[in-house]
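Build the 3D complex.
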Amino acid sequence: MRSMADAPVPAHDEAGDGPEETLVEDELLIEEISIDGMCGVY
Amino acid sequence: MTAYALDPQVAIRPEPFGALAYHYGNRRLTFLRDPRLVDLLRDLEHHESVDAALAASDIEPTRWPSFRRALDALSRSEVIRVR
Amino acid sequence: MSAERLVDELHYGLDAPICLTWEVTYGCNLACVHCLSSSGRRDARELTTAEAHGVIDELHDLQVFYVNIGGGEPTIRPDFFDLVEYAVAQRVGVKFSTNGTTMTAERARRLAGADYVDVQISIDGATPATNDPVRGDGSYAAARRAMDLLAEAGFGTFKISVVVTRQNAAELDSLEAIAAAYGAQLRLTRLRPSGRGADSWDRLHPTAEQQVDLYHWLVERPGVLTGDSFFHLSALGEALPGLNLCGAGRVVCLIDPVGDVYACPFVLHPQFRAGTVRDEGGFARVWRESDLFRQLRAPGSAGACASCGSFDACRGGCMAAKFFTGLPLDGPDPECVHGYGEAALAGRMAGSAPAPGPGHSVAVSLRRRTR
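Done.
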């Protein structure tokens, strides 16, 4: 799962998509959050 | 041309700065930053292709590549699926 | 579109929690020495079944995706399965935590047949020798039996949850092996000086060296869950998976057995009580309008940590850890990886840690405590 501390991608980044298992942070349109990565979660 | 739809196991909840999408099947949680992306996801099932859905939206064409990439990623995490 | 990081936006709070912990009873048949909720005796003012249904209805309306049900030992409530099934029927997923002592083959089958229900079994050591001094004689065997029953019933992937202590920090590989043998997910969480943990924290919390080892062990194992417990360790290098921020009152909170709402499960103290679901407006009103949560959601300052280059990564650590060791909330975490917390603890005035509340502990000891 990706860290939330990553720097934002520049506005017109043409970089390709990341590896299959992770969501690519594309112009901050989407960001995956680890559902298990929250305090108090079981 | 591939037709997509939002997976019925996905719940989308609006937030002040976008929306949260939770997939009850694979337990993955995704943050969607642009409300237009949410509308697009919901609209996919009414179009025969991603491009058709984009054309029907009010998203400016210069942004279509990044929306397409977002949809690619959402397809990999099973938020949307081929119908 | 804003270029702000997600973590900054989450700090300002959401319209509804992403993750909500609901302790449904203070009753428990164990008496773990570090219990964050000082559980033992049931409280006479516990939410009734009808009130609990009302809470679930609210969670449905707020579109909370799932609820983490715990306690005490949640399964000792006679209506436990009713509440779980009611929640699922309302499209609120359930993850619950149990010590495993009440598991039977029939209950395991019932859970295996339920969709959108996840189970976590708690142990604090890879063997009875490490586990039972913390959780009580026979508790390890009972937990393992529960795991066996779930496996036999075909439940699928469950979680094994371990609080990392000085005593079990050397057993992580063994714990990983136990989880692997069941096809279970291992979850390691941080010991906070909360509840009965206040008494045992000094002797139980990992050493600074063990923390560093733990961090590297976790970095190499992204499949091990942590419930965002160790974000204070992110100052050591790359951030661990998770939100990496204190979500208390912002994206998470706690509902306690009598309907009181707190910022998180580790701060069951009046200073962090936001309100009650029994007041008009219910839970939603507390979440959206309570003074406490508004304060937590306001931009905070780094305070004493402002000049430290690691603040961006560790964000000052855990509020509960600071509060219950008597440290200021705008300063270093007691387990700050740079040692600033230790220095702050040494400089603390006597009696600065808050007095523990009465709690619901039962007067029984697992071992003779020496202080």
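The interface with chain C takes residues 1-8, 27-28, 31, 33-42 of chain A (CB under 8 Å).
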